[in-house]
Design a protein that fits this description.
- This protein is 48% helix and 11% strand.
- It has helices at 5-15, 21-58, 91-102, 112-117, 119-127, 147-165, 181-189, 209-219, 241-256, 264-268, and strands at residues 78-86, 107-110, 131-134, 171-172, 193-194, 199-200, 224-229, 260-261.
- Strand 6 (199-200), helix 8 (209-219) and strand 7 (224-229) form a beta-alpha-beta unit.
- The N and C termini lie far apart (69 Å).
- The longest helix has 38 residues, at 21-58.
- The chain is globular.
- It has two domains: 5-58, no CATH class; 78-273, Glycoside hydrolase/deacetylase (TIM Barrel).
- By secondary structure, the chain is of the alpha/beta class.
- Strands 1, 2, 3, 6, 7 and 8 form a six-stranded parallel sheet that branches. The protein has a two-stranded parallel ribbon with strand order 4-5.
C-alpha cells in the first residue's frame, strides 16, 4: 500500500476501532465548528466594515470622513438647484434663460479646464447672480488621487475661476462625490467648504425630462440640495437639453407648492441647519 496513504488509513480503520472514537470526533467537531463560526463572524465583520467604508467615501450624505453640507432640516421650505460639470455651450446658456424666466438663482460647480476654455460662460453665470463653485480642474475621482494631485486639482480650478470671474464662492464639490478624510482636510486648508447633495435627478445618464423630474420629486423633503448637470466631464458640448426641460418643470411645480429656490450660500446662512452639517470633521 506504499504510495497510497489514504487507502492504508482506510484499511487500518476498517480493522481497528479506536477507543472513544465517537466522543473524540464530537469534541473535534465542536472545536472546528466554533472556530469556523469565529472565522465567519470575523470575515463578515471585515466585509461589512469594508462595504461601509466604501459607501461613506461616495455617499452624498455620509459624514464619516468629515462634515459636508447636504442641505437643511427636512420640512424647510427652501430648495437649492445645483449643476455640475459646466460650463457648457449651449446648455448652460439655455439654463440661464430658464432660471431668469422664473427669477431663480442656482449654484454651478464648474470644471476648471472648461472655465479656461469658455470663461465668458462663467462670467455670464456670475453676472446673472448665480453662485459658482469648485469642481476640480479635470474631474478626477479624488478617492484615488494623491494628496499632491488633489491639492493641485483644487488650486488650479480656484485659479481658473478667479481669472474668469474674480471673487466667487468658496464652495467645493468633489467629482462623483468621492472623497477621503484627506480630501476634505485639503479642501478646508485651502479655505473651501465641501458641498454634497441630498437629491439627485440621475440626468447624467441622458434620461428624458419626465424621468429626471420624477426621480427628483420622489426624493424632495424640503431643505434639499438638488444635483443636476449642465455639462459632462467627459466631453465639452454634451447634450443636456433634457435637464433644461426638467429644470423648467421642477421650478414651476415647487414654486406652486410654496417652495423658495435659493443658492447654496444663501441656504447655508439659513437659521436651521440639518444635524448632518453638525458632525465634527
Amino acid at each position: 500500500m506504499a504510495g497510497y496513504p489514504d487507502r492504508a488509513s482506510s484499511a487500518i480503520e476498517g480493522i481497528v476501532t479506536p477507543v472513544f472514537t465517537t466522543e473524540t470526533q464530537r469534541h473535534r467537531e465542536t472545536i472546528y465548528n466554533r472556530g469556523m463560526m469565529g472565522t465567519l463572524a470575523l470575515g463578515t465583520g471585515v466585509t461589512v466594515a469594508a462595504v461601509a467604508v466604501g459607501y461613506q467615501s461616495m455617499s452624498p450624505t455620509g459624514q464619516w470622513y468629515g462634515r459636508t453640507f447636504t442641505g437643511l432640516k427636512p420640512g424647510t421650505r427652501q430648495l437649492a438647484l445645483t449643476y455640475d460639470d459646466g460650463p457648457n455651450d449651449p446648455h448652460t446658456f439655455r439654463l440661464l434663460e430658464v432660471l431668469a424666466r422664473h427669477n431663480v438663482r442656482a449654484t454651478f460647480f464648474l470644471i476648471g479646464r472648461y472655465v479656461s476654455r469658455r470663461p465668458d460662460i462663467a462670467r455670464e453665470l456670475v453676472r446673472a447672480g448665480h453662485a459658482v463653485g469648485n469642481h476640480t480642474w479635470s474631474h478626477p475621482n479624488l478617492i484615488v488621487t494623491s494628496l499632491l494631485q488633489t491639492r493641485l486639482q483644487l488650486q488650479d480650478c480656484e485659479q481658473g475661476l478667479t481669472d474668469a470671474v474674480g471673487e466667487h464662492s468658496r464652495l467645493f464639490r468633489p467629482p462623483f462625490g468621492g472623497r477621503r478624510p484627506s480630501t476634505l482636510r485639503i479642501a478646508r486648508k485651502l479655505g473651501l467648504e465641501p458641498v454634497m447633495w441630498s437629491v439627485t435627478g440621475w440626468d447624467w445618464k441622458g434620461k428624458p425630462a419626465e424621468y429626471v423630474e420624477r426621480r427628483v420629486s420622489q426624493q424632495i423633503r424640503g431643505g434639499d440640495v438638488i444635483l443636476l448637470h449642465d455639462g459632462d466631464h467627459e466631453a465639452f458640448g454634451a447634450d443636456r437639453s433634457q435637464t433644461v426641460v426638467a429644470t423648467d418643470r421642477l421650478i414651476a411645480r415647487y414654486k406652486a407648492e410654496g417652495y423658495e429656490f435659493v443658492t447654496v450660500p444663501e441656504m447655508m446662512e439659513g437659521p436651521v441647519v440639518s444635524s448632518r452639517l453638525a458632525v465634527p470633521s
